Amino acid sequence: MDSDPLDIHTLPGHLIRRLHQISVAQFMERMAEEGADLTPVQFSAMAAIHRHPGIDQASVAGLIAYDRATLGKVVDRLVEKGLVARGISKADRRAREVSLTGEGEALLERILPVVRAAQPGILTGLTNSEQEIFVALLQKAAIAANGLSRAPQRDLPSRQAAE
What we know:
Blueprint: H1 12-34, H2 40-51, E1 55-56, H3 57-63, H4 68-80, E2 84-88, E3 96-100, H5 102-122, H6 128-144, H7 158-162
Antiparallel strand pairs: 1-3, 2-3
Helix pairs in contact: 1-5, 2-4, 3-4
């Protein structure tokens, strides 16, 4: 018997969307428990900024695979919350450099263990070994399809990566 071609529960896109919903719900629940007003995208931006203090906003967008306009709004909210400081680049006055504030660094340090601890719950039902394999396969698929995205992930230009 052939499977129903309209059964969305067999479509990778649908299943990935569902896991994304679950992931966001878990993240938001954990942040609420911590009293942290932070979204998954804001967390990703802060993590990229932490790893590359003084990075420009466009490079943050590339590192976390977000379009520049949306990332600008994400950074605006992080600046409003006092978690990120933004300034004009000395190298390119058109670019905006960002870095975490002391408050941003403290928040990131406080929530990082919480975020890490939440990850296995997203893949509840899989053994530890299956989770490792699944994550490796997700990475492989994301890398292979990166160019198909409207906001592909980009590495830092070599001058910033070397800093």
